[in-house]
Model the fold of this input.
Amino acid sequence: MTLSYRGEPFHGWQIQPGDVSVQSVIEDALGKILSSATPIVGAGRTDAGVNARMMVAHFDSERDLEGDNVFLRSLNALVGKDIAVSSVTKVHNGAHARFDADSRTYRYYVTLRKSPFLYPLSWRASGGLDFDKMNLAAENLLSTEDFASFAKLHSDVKTTICRVVKARWERWNDEGMYFEITADRFLRNMVRAVVGTLVDVGRGKISVESFSEIISSKNRSAAGTSMPPQALFLWQVTYPYFDSENSKYLNI
Done:
């Protein structure tokens, strides 16, 4: 299942007791359509308020749902206006949405001026930011293995090792920039903490050298404040059995 969603109405992706999550809404809808409890497993766990341009989830069904437009329309009708399921594709029996992923890409959107149209899904930078220095600092992420400085404290992760292959600020139009980062895995709150620390570089609060020292410290308290969630998007998830040229999953 490939889908997108706006994060603001949900308490994150993962099911939380007493809260509405993206996962719980989709599982409820699948249960009604398929007349049986249907758990789903997502490619990751976005935090509360974080959006997804592309999320992938797998589930088991005895019905062949690929190409079933009635099923897809019914599912989209039940999940509501803030979730859009774009496709359901049959993959090999051992496919796993989380463990099979080659990479995940996130984007964080920043606007440089006030806009009544962009603010719900972007963060407005008050004052100027030096994006050249921010990109110089971001280059340190490509040679970093341990991201403990940007990991949420007291989480249950067994390792803070990640492999980042891209980390760069890009202009998306005359009104703003986005930070794009691609890695094999991400820690909880990692991207928002990285962006917050890079913003400190852009504001001149810390130097490029200090950014490198923060990474080496492996101390979350040394890094910057986590950025607001509404401007963060899970942008893409890739798999070895995904045909990127034709945007479809291979039945292998």
Observations:
- The chain has a mean pLDDT of 93.
